[in-house]
Design a protein that fits this description.
By secondary structure, this protein is an alpha/beta fold. It is built from 14 helices and 20 strands. The protein has an eleven-stranded mixed beta sheet with strand order 4-3-20-5-19-18-6-7-9-8-17, with helices on both faces. It has a three-stranded antiparallel beta sheet with strand order 11-15-14.
Length: about 525
Amino acid sequence: MYEYISGKMREKPDRSEWTEKRIKQLQVLKDIAFKIIAFIAQFEDELVKIWKKPKFVLNSSYVITLDRIAEKDVALVAKILKHKGIKSQIEEWKELGIVDDSFRAEDVFTKQKKLSGEGLSEKYQHLPIDTRYFKDLELEILSLFDNLDNSLVGWLVKSENYQALNTILPKFKEKVQTIYIDPPFNKEEEADYFYSVKYKDSSWATLLENRLRLARDLLNEKGSIFVRCDYNGNWIVRPLMDEIFGKENFRNEIIVKRGAPKAGLFLQFGNLKSIGVMYDNLYWFSKNQDKVYGKFIESLPEERKGYWTSFKKIYDRPTMRYEILGINITEGQWMWNKERAYKAVENYQKYLEISQKTGETLEEYWIKTGQKLEFVRREGNSIQYWVPPKEKILLDNNWLDIPGYSKGWGFKTENSEILLKRVIESTSNEGDLIMDFFLGSGTTTAVAHKLGRRWLGVEMGEHFYSVALPRMKKVLAYDKSGISKESDVKEKYNEKNAGGVFSSTVSLSSMRIR
């Protein structure tokens, strides 16, 4: 073999032949390369372990209303009010709007008792004390409770939520009844929110998957989870939930109302590329397919009175055609089977006999007899049945009748309290634990508290301090907004029975720069 070099033909060396020295050098390089690869792999494994390892708490405090302290040691309330930290605490109360500028520490007690340690004022009994202002008294305050965990109504955690879920899993495994999350939507662009929404599809899917798998372990066997998303992410959420919770545990895709569409000042209909999107998707899955839910009902704005309507239906079933009160039909069908219809005729005839003596209306008779009787009558040439009064209706998956967002706390994506009320009331009972690990403005925990549930909220953003934490303090003191105005909520949550104790924790993971 020859090659042309510098204008001359020279014999080409056989490059397949290597010297022993060169082979040894290559072997050393290979060993070094493998060690580097192994080191990098080990380093990556260590990073994963560090990431999954529960982080130490940076700081924590407790928020306790005065009545909870007073019922244990009323003299300690007086001690708190004389503490140097009370000045900062009062400033916080004023910022929250719980007290006005004229408030003084001595106002906590009645005029007769002042700071003597007796006679806690009913008006100020639910003022929330944050132990961060009284660190030297914190142990004395907490020692009042024999079992602090059982005394807590909630846990508020500022943390990266994957870290938080790993950390709390041993404590709360299979103890959560209902989870509601409204994660940052998959927009692939920056938005004017308090958090990033600039995710690629794969990154957003991974973010959700890791957290949903942990969430499943936190749910008890009768538990439910609701995940809110929009058209950018619904095609990702449903398959993820099918895989993690099982297709058999899918309950519903619920349609939730969004805000009004934004129209440009000079928008011309001929230039539209798409129409406004007025809904979000709410995916509801359960932990166990055998769990039956029977509380998806809604109160009507006003009671619907009873009325008579046609007993004949358009469906054509010959087995449901028979003679009743002298009328027979050759097409269509009657509402009920023959036995049930004849019993309803008998019920109405008995009512007519009784009403001639008592003068009572059919509705009064129906109520008196237990609100279970059915009635059928003949009116001219038609047969009618009586539809009784209704105060409530069974819900379907169209929830456009209520707002999906609110603006009470100035948060861009603040979920409405009436939406969370429907979710929580329908899937849990008083005393159950409700969780939201994309807490945002704190609607889930606020509503859970007002409905007599325990709650656990996790939020990473700095609005933890400016929105979520202040909101929960105000809820303890008694928040008049949102569902507090609903008549059924007032029975459970009002100025006289507000108050409570919750912990506020900030983890080291929350200090990372995202």
